[in-house]
Amino acid sequence: MIVLLLYRSLADHILPRIVSWAVTFATRMLARGLNMPEPLVHSTGDYVVAQVTAFEHSVGRSLCPFRLARLLRAWWRGLH
After folding, report:
1. Is residue 30 located within the same domain as residue 49?
2. Which domain holds residue 59?
3. In whole angstroms, what separates CA 10 from the centre of its chain?
């Protein structure tokens, strides 16, 4: 029980800080590598996420494996 309590306290308090620090560090290193200001790296990342989300919602739905399987079965039945 004590080990679980220690684990929970570590996961709840220390881990988010480490992850936040790692993301900040990676963003700073990417900005330096690309010779761009950090806010521009953030806004570019937000733009890319928005574009990927829009693509997934438009084209990704038509490429759903269940939908494709249904279409393939219907096509196969039409041949026989």
Report:
1. no
2. 38-80
3. 24
